[in-house]
Structure prediction request, 523 residues.
Amino acid sequence: MTTAATACGASPPAGSGPTSANSLILGDAYELGAYNPVAGHGEAGDSKIYDGLLSLAGGDGIPTFEPALAARMPTVGDNGTTWTVHLRDGVTFTDGTNFDAADVAATYREILDPASASPLATSFDMIRSVDIVEPLQVRFELHYPFAAMPTKLLLGIAPSERLTGGPATESTLNTDPVGTGPYRLVSLRPDQAVFEANDTYWGGVPEISPLTVVYIPDDNARAQRMAAGEIAGTNLPPRLAATFEGREGTTVTANTSADWRAVSLPSGNPVTGDPAIRAALNRAVDREALVEHVLAGYGRPASTPLPEVYGDAYEPNATFDFDPAEAERILDEGGWRETPSGVREKGGQQATFTVMYFPEDTLRRDLAQAFATEVDRIGVRVDVAAVDRSNVPDRLSENAVLLGGGDMPYDPDPQLYNTLHSTFARDDAGSPYDNASDYSNPLIDDALDSARRATESDERTAQYRTVQNAYVDDPGYVMLVFLDHTYVSVESEFTGSEPILEPHSHGVSWGPWWNLEEWTATG
Prediction:
């Protein structure tokens, strides 16, 4: 156990609830609410309100899984399509009702029910049924063997009585959640949520309480409030986080992630859909320079969505060299001719397109601007546009976007499947950001499908290497970097914080605080 890189003791804002020596205030860039697991809350195992059947274990490399609401690790049938889970006895929800198999079945069934319009439905469609075997035993029947099934067992379980059907976004759980987790929500308003320790938590009552999370979407505003001592910790982009290095009583930490940043290349756009443009752009970008200058060294270059942390499944030769001369040669051969304006043309079409980014996200802004500068040198003109999040999905088929991914990095399947499989090019499949390029490559589809159904690790590894090699031959994005998530916090006298490979999400549910409920005071 290591000293936690955060602090307690800052006074919560007025009206946030009682204070104590063990209180904690954190500033988050993510909107508050939407606490319904059927709507996607805590899918990656990061909820403080709900528990999954399994939970993550910290440490370096790919995280392992351990039982949470499951009494022990699942039993897998010989054909790999039956997963039986024995449940922990004596667990109660924060409303006082007992947890049992009916709650597990109801949660998963609601995700699969089209009436819920759950954004998770496509990602859980390997599940054929969830059956109640006994009050404390459930059985998952799958359509095919799925080696990454443990990643689907991180999902938080809600009480069956609160799962009443209908759209997940309209459920009362979004603002009035009931779970078995270490904390319960006691106050919610748009700018602030207050959580108190669950005093009946089966894993032991957390020592940190209350926990106040303040919504501060602007990066610079979070940095200013951190510097003013108004919050005890927050997530910040690398260059902003670096400004806190060396300040007395303040710690900057970085967690390795599989979170990538990339430029989508919409297939239907006459520029970004052209194979020569796609191949050239991938060779025109100096990814090492992006890491050094935009990420302040907190990250690694990315050529495909799969980073080196995946071990044997990672293909080290599936990379793009920084080679502007080769990029220009590819454009020449592809019919994109130089013009006096400096912008290439083909058949009267100028080599120009727009890259959108979220205006509050300064890191995406900086990456988008750096990308535009790089590719301008080979005669491709990129307009960088700040676009409100709510408007981006409707423009994804026309404009590129500075995209983030790696939502579930605990297995290669969720790291790759939703990003590259052509299933997610359909408008009715998954999130609008899944396969935002509308990319389709039959070889990659076949390899991804074979890998997720394979029961032997060597076969899965070979298929994932095939995916990466095929992708480099036919890229659908310009992958830029993998991030190290950076956090700033005030030092404390608590221990228990551990490193963990982080997903795309990097608010204060992660960082030093991802296992906050396990911290203990040193005094």
